Amino acid sequence: MTDLNALLYTPEHEWIRIDDDIATIGITDYAADQLGDVVYVDLPQAGAAVTAGQVMGEIESTKSVSELYAPVDGTVVEVNEAVDADPDTVNASPFEDAWLVKVRLSGAPAGLLDRAAYTALTGAEA
Amino acid sequence: MSAEDTPTSPSGEGLRQSPLQAEHEALGASFTDFGGWWMPVRYSSDLAEHRAVREAAGLFDISHMGEIFVRGAGAAAFLDYALAGRLSAVAVGRAKYTMILAEDGGIIDDLVVYRLADEEFLIIANAGNRRVVADEISARIAGFDATFEDASERFALIALQGPAAAAILASTPGIDAPGLDELRNYAWTDALFRGVPLFVARTGYTGEDGFELLVDAQHAADLWRALLAAGAERGLVPAGLAARDTLRLEAGMPLYGHELARDIFPSQAGLGRVVAADKGDFVGARTLDERPGERLLVGLTMDGRRAGRAGYGVYRGDALVGEITSGALSPTLGHPIALAYVEHDAADAADLTIDVRGTRIPAHPTTLPFYRRKK
User: Fold this and answer.
1) Fold type of domain A4-122
2) How many CB atoms lie within 10 A of CB A118?
3) Minimal Cα distance from A67: which residue of B?
4) A49 and B CB contact within 8 Å
5) Record's family (chain A) (predicted)?
6) Low-confidence ranges of chain B (pLDDT < 50)
7) Domain boundary assignment for chain A
């Protein structure tokens, strides 16, 4: 199991795991619950440059469409093709099987939340 | 991540609650504001609930719908005047899908009307329209030997839908509903649940066989639990508004506020047959006037998995020729489906596209419903 306390978060409900200069990015269980059943995920291609705070993709559920924001600056080095094939993985395993992209950082991440801050945020929303 | 339309809002403050609210909370439902009511949008998964209704059964709380009784020697004549259909021709024990129209023919609401007795009818109105429907009934009833009662507060309405619905209803302890097997579609019967009156109608909004059960609000939770317990082994699950919406869309059924509205006429919505043109004077008779060039409701299918959503433009070449009113990836069919109003001469065009957030996706007009259950 993923140690959720070891992850960083955004107020837009992405999670980020940083290993050296690679950030693995997904959406949180809270976000997956709010969306309902995910039926389509549109992710950037490997090689694409992403900018923190800018839209990098879309997540579509049975009822809504959400934009996926890049939480960090960098270059996409890997995309989770399994999520493209089975979008419902996002609901089933948001922190493990349904990581979305891996990004090689081009600078130090900024403005990310720790678990306590993120939980306080979603707790206030729930 | 930021949702275009968030499926749940932070609280239900100021919204009306169903008599089944505590049941929904105990089942872990997520809620949404629907027509001024705080209603369950899903319990587990939209798709699982949708599939349960297609393959087994689902239980829906539809207590947000309005119940309006019309009674009196002139009740049938009044409804012939006040509504679009010929209600006087409905036999006792049967039901009819109809509409209440404005003077200019625009749709105020779509309704199901049950004939309870020679001189008694039950109108089921949409939650958000219940007051306006009651007000219109009140305004139109003058001069008729009839009275009406908005009894929405007194009742709970539960829908049991799916191929296993009849077997579940028949096997639920405490329900005494003789003649259930012979009950036809769009017919109703009086029954009992633990000795209290239970109105059982073979109607619904999912495209499946199923029933709608009207019971006094104070007995609603007991009935809900009894049905869920009896149906569990046949695959019955509680189902929310999200599943209800994809089910009705697959079945090509219009939803007020999407396909039906005050500025839409029945013929535009493909529902001209609902209007009994030859029954004499009625409110909304002008709906029959020629309306050349009006937009028409069409069914569209798309390839791939990206669905067009309500509000997305329909194009023919560079020309905007219409707008989607409801759209989703069909859980049963596996491809996107949509209902849209399009220009008259584009209604069966082979070269339509939908603008899905900047990408043009080909859309194919198709006959409705998208999904039809096997008999």
Assistant:
1) OB fold (Dihydrolipoamide Acetyltransferase, E2P) (2.40.50)
2) 21
3) B1
4) no
5) Belongs to the GcvH family.
6) 4-8
7) 4-122
